[in-house]
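Sat 14:20. Reprocessing the chain from the morning session after the first attempt stalled halfway. Input below, unchanged.
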Amino acid sequence: MYPSALHAEWLKIRTLRSQVVTLAVIPLVTLAFSVLAGRDASGDDPLFSAYFGVSFGQIAAVSFAANAMAAEFRDGALRTSLAAVPDRTRWFAAKATAIALPVLAVGLLTGALSLSTGDGLGWAESFRGAVGCGIYLTLMALLAAGLTAVLRSGVATLGIVVPFLLIVSFVVGDLSGTVADWFPDRAGQAVLHSDPPVDPWAGLSVTALWSGVALGAGVWRVGRRDA
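Finished this time. Tokens:
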């Protein structure tokens, strides 16, 4: 049942041109901003210079996930989905997986392409950045998917997440050594720094915890509310 549910959820995403375009925007925006950052890079953090654009490319990943999940709460779509997959937890898992896999694939591609904008990077550092980029974008997308399931609105989710990523995290996040280092985006992006404020993989684990909480709240909300 799970493979068929996953296939059905992937078909919903693949047949929406706007969703496919949003996925394509992730590497385009990331590379564009990374190239611009590379021109003005001081050389203090060559890895983050190569991945600077991820701070903006993640908005596309978040938008993709929020819109994919929000589509279920419009025009009775969730009732149709649950008619095919009555187990709500299984359906939610299939939906989350259908969101995560394409973002992971695009994220890994983005991570590999972004290396071309960097200079003087070692093999180990490059590998960490490329793989970390893919994992980080996937976790942020899942966080958005879970929050959308809670709020039942993609607009509401983007209204919270986008200002947080572009304003709150940028402003507060510059205060290194504070609680800001454990924000989902700041912690996860540690893997994209040559000299991160926290252990890179521990930082990704923190982001995974944030995403797990959001997904847990989402599946609870779906199970408690009428379709």
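The radius of gyration is 18 Å.
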